[in-house]
Amino acid sequence: MRRISLLLMGALFAVVLGACSAQSEAGDTVDASDGAGEARGDDWPESLKFAVAGIEGQEELLLRFEAFEETMEEMLDTDVELFALSDRTVSSTALEYDQVDIVLSGPSEYILSKEAKPEIELAGGVHRADGHYHVVFIASEESGIESLDDAVGETIAMKDTGSTSGHIGPSGVLVDEGYDLDEDFDIQLLGDSSLEALLNGEVDVMADGVKHWHTIQEEGLEDEFRLIYEGEPLPADPFVLNDTLPEEFKEEFLNILMENEEEVLDAILSSEENDKYEDGGIIEVSDEDYDNMRETYEILGLEIEE
Questions:
Q1: ∠ at Cα 53 (49, 54), nearest 5°?
Q2: Could you name the CATH architecture of 24-129+235-305?
Q3: What transmembrane ranges does the database entry give (predicted)?
Q4: Contact, 23 vs 247, CB < 8 A?
Q5: How many angstroms separate the Cα of 304 from the Cα of each of 26, 144, 182?
Q6: How many angstroms separate the CA atoms of 8 and 6, rounded?
Q7: CB atoms inside a 10 Å sphere around CB 76
Q8: In CATH, what number does 134-233 get?
């Protein structure tokens, strides 16, 4: 059985979190209330550590989310510190060991985090524009492959283990369509080289997010490749809150996101590197929204090893 091991990053960072004096039993989702804009509570943390899954290194994190950091500091009346992660699985470790307070997570990373620490909660998510976040399967025109049935017995290039749109999503599509992942296809996880492998003729089919089809169109190559399958929209990227945060703060954080949607999105989109959220929105999310991702993890035999 294949397993994902969550490895601690050497010695754990020493993290000083603000005291949380009022804490109630956590659920899966924070409920919005009518208290948006109220003054900060006495038990709110003096500072917050905020991380973004999928962004490696402090320099890139600052480049892409410094404006968001400043916006949230003003809205929350609390210092916000950006916390860099080294890879997608480390966000779950950081939450589990209370190194971070809030993570803007991918759907796949949320599944890992929820299994590592069930007490974490959701507080809204960033929904991408319609038609901009779903799985596609692309075949070369020369291959003659016109459907998933035609791809049986062929090599399918995917991204890397645990990628929402480049592994878990397309694997879930194939399972839902009744295929056996081990018997029907030779699935190769090629990381960021999957599109290049398709363009160079090294594979006949690739599966990943629709942005790669858009790239093919922008390069004027749509006559050389064929879109053979489009999946349903993938879940929103959720804001994940550590259970160490006070309940009043969790509710107010969601209220602030919902009441200030345009300003929050503008802060995120101030960096062109975040253009995947262009024309998107802030929506309420629930744990059930990620059940399909969770089920695919189980089918793939991917587990968290403590």
A1: 140
A2: 3-Layer(aba) Sandwich (3.40)
A3: none
A4: yes
A5: 22, 39, 21
A6: 7
A7: 17
A8: 3.40.190.10
